[in-house]
Design goal:
Distance between the termini: 9 Å
Strand content: 35-45%
Largest sheet: 4 strands, antiparallel
Strand order of the largest sheet: 1-2-3-4
Structural class: mainly beta
Helix content: under 10%
Number of strands: 20
Number of helices: 1
Shape: globular
Radius of gyration: 17 Å
């Protein structure tokens, strides 16, 4: 593809999440510098890297949380959402047997400036990630299942459940377009990626057949790059009509 250079940048930005919060010193940590938050799954903590010095400035401990997996920052740069799987996921997201991953799954909401845990949401099914809506009023949480997965959408005002969307088999990652108008869900067990309108959660369309997609990562030009573990391939998806480029 002609988009390999853009792809490299996209993948890098997914792995490192930026924050530029400036506040008075509060609590254990004080993130008043440009920072990257990196999850250390086997150490059950988060490294806060100062991007000006390139060094670890703080460490956020995650007590009673085994194997944190993914981390996302709200667009207002105030809150971190960390998915906890309860099991070692070093070999990647599973393609089946999701019922065996229920123990210890949860989502942690963490203050991005002082590192305190704001809220803990216990879950009964495997969670790949939790991601904030573009306006930060909702938290979209994926629940993987061998028969029917779900997106559970929480209100960030009081963390109550607002909407539940039923999906296919083996939901992996939930992402949004760069402009936030659409969400993408990768159902590994169904070999497809779905698109939903962010505003009213209505279904838009399914992608073409893929081989065990695990995520759709947005670019700046309304396309998404699809990672497929079934054939170790990367595809570019046109977000306007859900066709492969």
């Amino acid at each position: 593809m002609n988009n390999l250079n853009r792809l490299g940048v996209t993948v890098f930005l997914i792995g490192i999440i930026f924050s530029e919060c400036t506040h008075d010193k509060v609590g254990i940590t004080n993130v008043n510098f440009p920072a990257a938050y990196v999850v250390n799954a086997k150490d059950n903590n988060i490294s806060v890297i100062n991007l000006e010095t390139g060094k670890i400035a703080q460490t956020i401990s995650l007590p009673n949380s085994v194997f944190p997996y993914h981390i996302y920052l709200s667009r207002d740069k105030k809150t971190l959402a960390v998915s906890v799987t309860g099991k070692d996921m070093s070999n990647g997201f599973p393609s089946s047997g999701y019922s065996s991953f229920g123990t210890g799954c949860k989502v942690l909401l963490i203050n991005a400036v002082n590192g305190t845990i704001i809220k803990e949401i216990p879950l009964t099914q495997l969670v790949s990630n939790a991601i904030f809506s573009p306006d930060a009023t909702e938290l979209w949480v994926g629940q993987a299942d061998d028969a029917q997965s779900h997106i559970v959408i929480y209100k960030t005002s009081d963390w109550s459940i607002d909407t539940t969307i039923a999906l296919g088999k083996g939901l992996a990652e939930i992402t949004f377009c760069t402009d936030g108008d659409m969400s993408f869900t990768a159902t590994t067990g169904d070999d497809s990626v779905q698109m939903y309108y962010s505003s009213d959660k209505s279904f838009l369309m399914n992608s073409e057949v893929l081989e065990k997609p695990t995520g759709a990562w947005p670019s700046d030009h309304h396309t998404d790059f699809i990672t497929c573990e079934g054939n170790n391939m990367l595809y570019e998806l046109n977000a306007d009509d859900c066709s492969l480029i």
